[in-house]
From TrEMBL:
Keywords: Hydrolase, Magnesium, Metal-binding
Origin organism lineage: Bacteria, Pseudomonadati, Chlamydiota, Chlamydiia, Parachlamydiales
Family annotation (InterPro entries): HAD-like_SerB (IPR050582), HAD-like_sf (IPR036412), HAD_sf (IPR023214)
Natural source organism: Protochlamydia amoebophila (strain UWE25)
SUPFAM superfamilies registered for this protein in UniProt: HAD-like
Single Gene Ontology MF annotation: metal ion binding
UniProt-recorded name of the protein: HAD-IB family hydrolase
Superkingdom of the organism of origin: Bacteria
PANTHER family attached to this UniProt entry: PHOSPHATASE RV3661-RELATED (PTHR43344:SF13), PHOSPHOSERINE PHOSPHATASE (PTHR43344)
Keyword Nucleotide-binding: no
Amino acid sequence: MKLCVFDLDHTLLTVNSSYRFGTYLYQQKFISFFTLSHCLFYYARHKFLGMSMQKLHEKIFQKLFKGLYLKELQKHVKNFLDLELIKLFYEPALQRLQEAKQRGDYTLILSASPDFLVQPIAEKLDVKNWRASVYAPDQEGKLEYLSSILDGLNKANYVVSLINQMQIDYTAITAYSDSYLDLPILELSGKAVGVVPDNYLRKICQERGWEIL
């Protein structure tokens, strides 16, 4: 069996799902422009000024999600995906996913985005498995803390544990991502594919002969 691993944001999707969802919440008047602006500021610092993935999640969680009822948030996620998801797919990557499913490959989505966003997208795509960053609720169902962040290294660690369970070789792995932050998983895969890669990853793809989609 082969294992096909897909990043979500800017890979299967043309956008960052968390950013797009935040914009949707603002349009629905669920959050203020002030809150949205702060979130965009933190995202820009991560994207262009080197803010870590951990720090980005901490800032966004504190500003936007902490204290919200998870069930209420999930209702907004459902409405958001029903309205917008079909428009957000990057067709070349989506086609690769469909081809992998048709071959009977083990399909896996690994995303640093929150689990309450990634899970329903993964279910709509009917993949075999998924993992995401975990935003944990308290006993009342309100989001309380960040349980785990699925960064590039944690993605790679999960894949290593998975292939040990599946008893397959690293050469059976194909990994798709847009970001150099996912180098840990791209480098351990038998085939690495840069999907509209960022500048640093594009350079690496060209140097190593990795496919660019």
